[in-house]
Design brief:
This protein is of the alpha/beta class and 253 residues long. Helices cover 38% and strands 28% of the residues. It has eleven helices and twelve strands.
């Protein structure tokens, strides 16, 4: 088992750090006016990898919060994965050049699978696919539209493409603190060889424990947002659990 990573999430809207409920831009709560300060705070708490989404970019189809992202890259040394508005190779390349460790392609993975394949081939290990599902069907354009394809169908298209990870979000739970949909996420992970990261609904330390259970061993990690901002998830406790599990795996390995 690879080490499970807990990704703290920074969602950007109008240059601010927000959380949405079920992907609805009208239901945004602003948590920090300064995303770079938020990124620094996550680094100080001991997180190893940051998950950033340009929400305006996801709707506009092009990067909209570039200044905030660049400020975050300057503020922290930990790797950053970024999604939202990445729809062509030029944008992929520009972000990787600026220091993003991994780009996340969502809408274009449904609309233009060849983009993902060519990007993953050109930048091995640095391209992830974001699959956001509503009732099993993948939603696109900042979740404004639901397609007719399932997450599994899309994930299978990229089996041999060199994609670093699939980030699977259950939209119905996102931002509502209902707990991760591990059943659906594990079912997806069991059918593909690409590492899967769980997202949507992360609520408490119970989710961390569930993530470390044997049945979730194929999952590469999970993304936590609102639970961290609301103080429902204690970063130190969560990261200690993960570190202990990692140490135990090593000693048995």
């Amino acid at each position: 088992m690879e080490a499970v990573i807990l990704f703290p999430a920074v969602d950007l809207k109008n240059g601010q750090c927000v959380r949405l409920e079920q992907g609805d831009m009208a239901r945004a709560t602003v948590f920090n006016l300064d995303p770079a300060a938020q990124a620094r705070s996550f680094a100080e708490q001991g997180f190893e990898y940051l998950h950033v989404v340009d929400l305006d970019g996801a709707f506009a189809g092009k990067p909209m919060n570039a200044l905030a992202v660049e400020a975050m890259l300057k503020a922290v040394t930990m790797p950053v994965q970024l999604g939202g508005g990445i729809r062509d190779l030029k944008t992929v390349e520009a972000w990787l050049d600026k220091g993003i460790a991994r780009v996340i392609i969502g809408t274009a993975a449904v609309r233009d699978p060849e983009l993902v394949k060519s990007a993953a081939k050109k930048f091995p290990g640095r391209v992830a696919v974001g699959l956001d599902a509503r009732d099993g069907k993948v939603a696109v354009e900042g979740w404004a539209e639901t397609s007719q394809v399932t997450a599994l169908e899309i994930a299978q298209r990229f089996e041999d493409a060199g994609v670093a990870a699939i980030i699977f979000t259950d939209i119905a739970r996102d931002g509502l603190l209902k707990g991760l949909n591990l059943d659906a996420t594990i079912a997806l992970a069991d059918r593909i060889s690409i590492p899967v990261i769980a997202s949507g609904g992360f609520a408490s330390i119970e989710d961390v424990k569930a993530l470390l259970e044997p049945r979730a061993k194929k999952l590469a990690g999970a993304i936590a947002g609102r639970a961290l901002y609301d103080g429902r998830l204690d970063p130190a406790a969560a990261l200690t659990l993960i570190r202990n599990a990692r140490a135990a795996t090593k000693s048995h390995g």
